[in-house]
Amino acid sequence: RKEVEQDPGPFNVPEGATVAFNCTYSNSASQSFFWYRQDCRKEPKLLMSVYSSGNEDGRFTAQLNRASQYISLLIRDSKLSDSATYLCVVTKNTGNQFYFGTGTSLTVIP
Amino acid sequence: GAVVSQHPSWVICKSGTSVKIECRSLDFQATTMFWYRQFPKQSLMLMATSNEGSKATYEQGVEKDKFLINHASLTLSTLTVTSAHPEDSSFYICSARRGTRPYEQYFGPGTRLTVT
């Protein structure tokens, strides 16, 4: 079973739409959780950390449910520039090795 | 900000040859660096954890004799793909950890390897 599972999409949404991505992880001992964004042929860049209490950064809201081993990302008022692949990441152990999901592709359409 | 560079950014080599990829943290010291591989339309797969001054820790299924990792200084880790084959063609990305917090991991721009 994969460490992290995501729906690969693609998600094609119009500008201004709200879109949600989900991610599940298999190891209950996972310690830290993140959403990264990766543009085509580029390195991933940190979008936001994810906490059980939920956190919001502008149009982006992330949520963690430890009981269900589930992470979500909500994007409101989608912009064309949001088009990218969104990667769910979990870490485990003190080594902080990152385990990436397969990524969810988002295309925002004018 | 924290900057991580990789060299080369892309390389084409013949089957059977070895290729070395460098990962450098330019403005911070990194006791730990990580190497990932990404095949087309797939996610990043952690290959190994590189620790300065000690042996690398490889993920299950990654051949340590094929992917040689050296972390000789606090700012440089190298990955050598030995006896490369076409199936080794991939996007190799390194990251360097600054500090102790998990989110303080910064990625290099990646190296695209094509083995012919």
Descriptive overview:
The complex is a heterodimer of chains A (110) and B (116). Chain A is mostly beta strands and 110 residues long. Chain A contains no helices and eleven strands. In chain A, strands 2, 4, 5, 9, 10 and 11 form a six-stranded mixed beta sheet that branches. Chain A has a five-stranded antiparallel beta sheet with strand order 1-3-8-7-6, with no helix packed on it. In chain A, strand 7 (60-65) and strand 8 (70-75) form a beta hairpin. Chain B is globular. In chain B, strand 9 and strand 10 (105-107) form a beta hairpin. In chain B, strands 2, 4, 5, 6, 9, 10 and 11 form a seven-stranded mixed beta sheet that branches. Chain B has a four-stranded antiparallel beta sheet with strand order 1-3-8-7, with no helix packed on it. Chain B is mostly beta strands and 116 residues long. The termini of chain B are far apart. Helices cover 0% and strands 53% of the residues of chain B. Chain B has no helices and eleven strands. The chains are: A mainly beta (110), B mainly beta (116). The A-B interface holds A 31-32, 34, 41-46, 49, 87, 91, 95-103 and B 32, 34, 36, 42-46, 49, 57, 59, 91, 93, 95, 97, 102-103, 105, 107-110, 112.
Total count of strands of chain A:
11
SS element count, helices of chain A: 0
- Quaternary state, please? heterodimer
| Helix-strand sequence of chain A | EEEEEEEEEEE
Shape of chain B: globular
Can you give the helix content of chain B as a percent range? under 10%
Count up the helices of chain B: 0
Mean pLDDT of chain B: 92
Number of strands of chain B: 11
SSE order of chain B, as H and E? Answer: EEEEEEEEEEE
Distance between the termini of chain B: 37 Å
> Biggest sheet of chain B: strands, sense, closure?
7 strands, mixed
Q: What proportion of the residues of chain B form beta strands (DSSP E)? A: over 45%
Flag low-confidence runs of chain A: none
- SS-based structural class of chain A? mainly beta
Which protein chains are joined by the largest interface, and how many residues does each one contribute? A-B, 21 and 23 residues
Structural class of chain B: mainly beta
Summed over residues and divided by their number, the pLDDT of chain A gives a mean of 91
Spatial extent as radius of gyration of chain A: 13 Å
The largest sheet of chain A, given as strand count, sense and whether it forms a barrel, is: 6 strands, mixed
Outline the low-pLDDT stretches of chain B: none
